[in-house]
Amino acid sequence: MRVLGLTGGIATGKSTCVEMLRKLDPQLVVFDADQCVADLYQRKDVELALVKLVGESAYLENRELNRAYLRDRVFADPALRREIQDLIHPLVRKECLVSLEIASKKGGTTSFIADVPLLFEGGFDFGQDANLVVAVSRETQEQRLIMRSGFDVATVHAILEAQLPISHKEKCADVVFWNEGPKSVLEAQLKRFIENNYR
Questions:
Q1: For the residues of 24-47, what is the DSSP string, one character each?
Q2: Burial profile 52-90: b = 16 or more Cβ within 10 angstroms, e = fewer
Q3: 51 near 131, Cβ under 8 Å?
Q4: Tens digit of pLDDT per residue, the chain (199 long)?
Q5: Closest CA to 11 of 151, 196, 109, 174
Q6: Which residues are paired to 6 by β-bridges?
């Protein structure tokens, strides 16, 4: 079983890449760090720790976490972002290792891929054999973010500044998938990767 890390930047097409990989190789197992974080936010201990860091404004009137407020605070305050990452990242890594252990005991699994947006920023090491990056230009990231999420330019820049530049991630990667063109181009790269390295 191959153990792989997958990352990119926001709006580079990681989700599309994962979707294609699942179709190309139904025997792979994917750990989704974003979904893991969403699940962790449902835990009472994590919720209370977040509120302790951010304050009562982290709650909506119905006492659910105000995700939009948290996002804005995190991108505006690097020190707070580090504190929240120090809280969340070890928990995500723990869940990733549990998933990896389960996948390793499951017969027939060809690969375990951890989809982790902050793979390099957080030094996310789970014993992977290689790291994969889905890349586009900064201009494409900005355009996709504005079109997809409706963020203003200032918010888009704040989000992108909170992540390592794609050019830096490319240098850290073992394999880069370029996702500027049509989906068929990305799919061809993934097919070639699977044929040459995966099995």
A1: H-TT-EEEEHHHHHHHHTTSHHHH
A2: eebeeebbeeeeebbeeebeebbbeeeeeeebbeeebbe
A3: no
A4: 999 999 999 899 999 999 999 999 999 999 999 999 999 999 999 999 998 999 988 888 888 888 888 888 888 898 999 999 999 999 999 999 999 999 999 988 999 999 999 999 889 999 999 999 999 999 999 999 999 888 889 888 888 888 899 999 999 999 999 999 899 999 999 999 998 875 5
A5: 151
A6: 115, 132
Tell me whether strands 2-7 and 175-178 are parallel, antiparallel or unpaired.
Answer: unpaired
Enumerate the β-bridge partners of residue 135. Answer: 178
The whole-angstrom separation of Cα 156 and Cα 109 is 38
Residues 27 and 112: beta-carbon distance below 8 Å: no
Retrieve residue 33's tokens.
């760090």
Edge to edge, the sheet with strand 111-115 lists: 29-32, 111-115, 2-7, 130-135, 175-178
Sketch out the chain's domains with CATH numbers.
2-193 (3.40.50.300)
